[in-house]
Amino acid sequence: MPTYQEILATDLSTLTTAATKWEEMSGQFKERETLYHDKVHTITLPTTWVGQSSQAANATFDITLNEYKNAQTEAKAMASLLRDAHTQFAELRKKVESERDAAIKDGMTVSATGYVTFDTSRLDTGELSAYHHDPDYQQSARKKASDWQSRIDNAVKSVCDADEGFEVALTLVVKDSDVMDGTSNGFNGKAKGDIEQYEADEGKEIALRVDSGDATAHDYQELQRLFRDNSGDKVFSQTLLDNLGADGTLKLSNSLDSLAYDKDKKQSGQYLDIQKGLATTLSTATKDPDSDFYKRFRSEMQKAGTEEFKLNGLSKIPNERVRGYQSLVTLMQHGDGYSGQFLKDTADDIRHAEVSYTAKGNLDSVWALRDKFSGGDRGWFANDPLDGVLGIMSHDPATSTAYLDPAHSDNLKYLLHGRSWDTVVDHFATPPGGTTQGMAVTVEDGDVRKGFGAALEAATTGGAPGAYHPIGHHSTAQASILQQTIDTLNADNHAQKLPKNLTEPLAHILTSYTADTHQTFANDDSTYQILKDDPGRVWSDKDGAHMAVSTNHLAQLMRGIADDPEAFGHLYGAEQKYSHDVLAAIPQDADNTTITNRIAESSRAIGGYDAIRSDIIFDERFKKTQWAADFNHGIGSSLSTALMFNPVSSLGPVGDVATKAVDLWTYESNKEHTAEANLAATSENAKTYEAGQRDAEHMVRLWGQSRGHDIDSDYTKFILRGAQGEYDKGRNGTLIYLRADR
Q1: How many helices (H) does the chain have, and how many strands (E)?
Q2: How many angstroms separate the Cα of 671 from the Cα of each of 367, 477, 563, 567?
Q3: Could you tell me if 658 and 702 are in contact, meaning their C-beta atoms sit under 8 angstroms apart?
Q4: Exposed, middle or buried: residue 638 (CB in 10 Å: 0-12, 13-18, 19+)?
Q5: What is the distance between the alpha carbons of residues 271 and 217, in angstroms, rounded to a whole number?
Q6: Is the dihedral of CA 10, 11, 16, 19 positive or negative?
Q7: Quick one: how far is CA 347 from the chain centroid?
Q8: How far is Cα 380 from Cα 368, in angstroms, rounded to an integer?
Q9: DSSP string covering 473-515, please?
Q10: Which whole number is the average pLDDT over 115-121?
């Protein structure tokens, strides 16, 4: 392998010079072919010469003529390989040089052999003294030098990988690939002029040895190099997958998983790195949905996707077989950067496979397997491939939105309403009161809907899943997906008892729609006033799309989220901050009507949120004190109290005083939340909870203080009385939908 020094010193022009010579050689072979054809091959033999000797002579003439043609093909291919190598080496050497130059610019010195050290010669006397006497300074310098060393080493390694790939091509291009052409080790009439095609051919041969169990340690190292060297290369990727076919691709992936998770766990890192390379190859090969390769590979996968494959070590159940789409999505989870069309097509094909299976009268899922496939043991395996591909899709919010948009498909409805999520044969049912085993029961797995929840979150917020989102500028499609989700969950009576693993994603989503939920509970804007149980609507203005749903639908959904106290605490905290921001935005010269209306709306909104908290506290099923503690933690961990109640900054000392009061008042509110949780769950207590009212009061008092009014001034007391009444109205109006005894 070339060293750093050799890479920088080698005269790459010799490659193009050699390429020119091979091209000239091809021309000379062409001249010899013409001469042989005219002077030897086309000689009219005497008609009296017949028999075996005549046939043998003619056959020999044909073989020789064909060899001249093959020699031209091989020479042209050799020239093309040399030019291909020159292009690769020139680009990769530039990368080595640029890393070296960047390291020097960052204060390093790079030796002739590529060794990086911190350049102390650039330091002045004071800096040098500080360096020698400060161990932290020295450690920082060594760390920076080490980082640059790694970058240069990686650039050198890329050249070495390309050099080995070139060697592979040079070895194979001169091999006679047609054993029936009448020669033994003659010229290669099927020679190819692309290094990556030869590397793909080698990859197929190694894959076959991996599948048969005959691969050597060198084979695995070479497979790593092939994927590393050709990461992102379309020719290599499509050629390799074409060589393997859908079946071969799945078998290679399964073999690597068997090795990593069962047969050779000590070397699992190497096998999983190869899986990542194979996944990157798949991602690269499927970028263009209009290509012949894409159509061919998808068609093959549609057939292989429902076929059964062997995967050793996945389950303790004897002879367990997995489906092709399960293996495909497991492979895909190792990669990224898949085209949106490939993700949507794969999801569509998986859905079609499971619907077709059910249509044939099967009572279980086509993906049903014995054992469980969640958690650290088998969670890596995509036993539910549709949920798995949705999880991958969630990393591409635009594609998630397009896939779930109800204006263009019924995918969202299918996932929320029409699909059975039972995928694991968990146990045998015993009839009530009986002692005999019944039929096998298929149930939901532990990680059910994890992918769907992530895709739903990305689709409705436009952001990455797994975090609480700031209030955003939504598209019509994003808001429509959320509106239909809320409507469908309510129609199915699933809102208050949410499907497993959707609670947290829905909480994340709703923080991004706080402006809409605020208005829904405020019940003051006609565009948000939706009749009870009506599906709601979506519309757009200068701030983007907005979603309006009926108060009872929103309350019931939030009640379902509130089963997770910390998640609901985030929603509550987001509403607190938004309500305060609404008040902070009231113009300094606003009239009393504007002030009263904004305070009334915010107080009713907080009352609506607090109704849900109250319903939880009233419910005897919960360990209420723990719920209240987790709820308070949810508020505190999602947004700092200073952000929730941030007075107008331009007010100087007045604002500072209010800011200092925030921590105390929030602490008092949290104590009140916990104290209420200790009350007996009686109907009377449910009507007199006051902690939420205190939250609204704190907001109003802080707003008044930010405008120069003492927290106990007559003005503050006047607006506070109105706020208390509006809070009660919002709380009681929402609580009606949650318990009949109100």
Answers
A1: 29, 9
A2: 49, 42, 21, 19
A3: yes
A4: buried
A5: 11
A6: negative
A7: 14
A8: 16
A9: -B-HHHHHHHHHHHHHHHHTT-SSSPPTT-HHHHHHHHHHTHH
A10: 96
Cα(460)–Cα(398) distance, rounded to whole angstroms?
10
The strand pairing partners of 440, in sequence order, are 428
Q: Within 13 A of 689's CA, how many CA atoms are on the CB side? A: 31
Q: For residue 463, which of 512, 499, 405 has the smallest C-alpha distance?
A: 512
Q: How far apart are CA 356 and CA 362, in angstroms?
A: 10
* 356 SS3 class: helix
Closest Cα to residue 601, out of 470, 730, 432?
730
Got the DSSP string for 697-715? HHHHHHHHHHTT--TTSHH
Instruction: Say how many Å lie between the first and final Cα of the chain, rounded.
Output: 80
What angle (nearest 5°) sits at the alpha carbon of residue 97, between those of residues 91 and 100? 145
- Asked whether 502 and 540 are in contact (CB, 8 A), the reply is no
Contact in structure between 463 and 522 (CB atoms under 8 Å): no
Token reading at 301: 């996968």
Total-model pTM: 0.87
Phi, psi of 259 (to 5 degrees): -70, -45
By DSSP bridging, strand 537-541 and strand 369-370 are unpaired
Decide if 454 contacts 394 (C-beta within 8 A): yes
Q: In what helix (H) or strand (E) does residue 442 lie, and over which residues does it extend?
A: strand 440-444
In sign, the C-alpha dihedral spanning 304, 305, 311, 317 is negative
Question: Which pLDDT tens digit goes with each residue over 78-109?
Answer: 999 999 999 999 999 999 999 999 999 999 99
Average pLDDT, the chain: 87
Give the chain's radius of gyration (CA, Å): 35
Q: Which residues on adjacent β-strands are paired with residue 424? A: 369, 443
C-beta of residue 571 within 8 angstroms of C-beta of residue 609? yes
- Contacts with 304 (C-beta within 8 Å, 6 or more apart), sequence order: 246, 247, 250, 324
Residue 688 is predicted with a pLDDT of: 55
User: Could you tell me what percent of the chain has a pLDDT over 90?
Assistant: 65
> Could you give the CA distance from residue 347 to residue 341 in angstroms, rounded to a whole number?
10
Residue indicated by tokens 């005894």: 741
In this structure, the dihedral spanned by the alpha carbons of residues 435, 437, 438 and 442, taken in order and rounded to 10 degrees, is: 130
Span 333-360, pLDDT tens digits: 999 999 999 999 999 999 999 999 999 9
Q: Cα separation of 662 and 619, whole Å?
A: 30
Query: What six digits make up the tokens of 155?
Result: 């650039």
Beta strands in 246-290 (DSSP E): none
